Amino acid sequence: MESVHDRRTLERRRLSALAPLVALAFAFVVAACERAEYRPLPGDSIRSGWASQERLSGLAAAPAQREFLRSAAEGGLFEIEASRIAIARGGSAAVRRFAEATLRDRVAIDTDLQQLAASVGVSLPSQLSDTLQARLSVLAQLNGRDFDRAYARNVGVMAQEEALSAFERAADQDGERVQRFAASQIPALRKHLEWARELAAELDRTSMA
Question: Is the confidence at residue 36, as pLDDT, over 50?
């Protein structure tokens, strides 16, 4: 008859025989985990929600959308640089407030544009065209009321009208992501343009008084 001692001895021998197999299985699992790479899902999004961390080949922008992204980015650069000048030398507190708001808004939009453009394979300009650089140079030579009126008209009104027109042409709430992005910015652009027109009109009345 088998004793308790014999059964325990037999059980220990079985466990000893299984130990190498268990160790081998554990090592295989660890190695598999070390080889695994994180792959974000297509729905993972960056801050704005317009750009995916993983660009899929089917997301390439159409030529018109590429042109819109580049034009919007360049226009944003112009407003950013002009507004920095206005904050530093604007003679009117109202002009400086408008410039601060414009700078804040355009930097935010530029961040979204950079992310969106990267997600659809579009390279954005990092400097102004000769035409916009010339407009900025003229503005930088002015001071006092002349500067305030020029900034309100050329940056506040003209640049806002140009931006709004470009965004409206590209907008489609039911279209692709570039088109949806353009549509989402239109209400804020319209509001900013209204503010710019009011500012320009107020400066005109002040200069005539």
Answer: no
